[in-house]
Design brief:
The longest helix is centred in the C-terminal third of the chain and has 19 residues, at about 105-120. The chain has 5 helices and 3 strands; from the N terminus they run E-H-H-E-H-E-H-H. Helix 3 (about 60-75) links the parallel strand 2 and strand 3 (about 80-90). The protein has a domain at about 5-10 and about 45-120. The chain starts with a strand and ends with a helix. It has helices spanning about 25, 35, 60-75, 90-95, 105-120, and strands at about 5, 50-55, 80-90. The protein is α/β, with parallel strands linked by helices and about 120 residues long. This is Alpha/beta hydrolase.
Length: about 120
């Protein structure tokens, strides 16, 4: 069992302005931003996580990906498995699956295979 976060969305709402056309629809105008932040829920969990990002991500995704990587590294005492998709953007990192470009697909398959092998050893 594991999780793959592809171009992680808003992971840390603390200390950043929310986009009124996007973020406020999800999180509301008021609320405990620390409690609503995914990075605050990472500690104490043991699920393996792979982070994937595209080379040409928007600035907000780059920042939030970094924050998620830092939270996972703090939790585990090491960096999480990280994959990049050179030449891709926020959309094409997923939409290129099933094409001749298997750059990220190989990394994803490797993570899934590793987790399956580890799960088999635990039985």
């Amino acid at each position: 069992i594991g999780a793959v976060l592809i171009s992680p969305p808003v992971a840390d709402l603390r200390g950043r302005d929310l986009d009124p056309e996007r973020d406020l629809l999800y999180y509301g105008a008021k609320g405990d931003r620390a409690a609503q932040s995914v990075v605050g829920a990472v500690a104490g969990r043991e699920i393996p996580v792979m982070i994937a990002y595209a080379q040409n991500e928007p600035d907000v995704i780059i920042d939030q990906t970094r924050r998620m990587i830092e939270a996972l590294a703090e939790r585990d005492g090491r960096l999480p498995l990280i994959a990049s998709a050179p030449g891709h953007n926020h959309i094409s990192i997923v939409s290129h699956f099933g094409t001749a470009d298997d750059t990220f697909g190989r990394d994803l398959l490797g993570f899934v295979t590793l987790q399956a092998l580890l799960a088999g050893q635990e039985r």
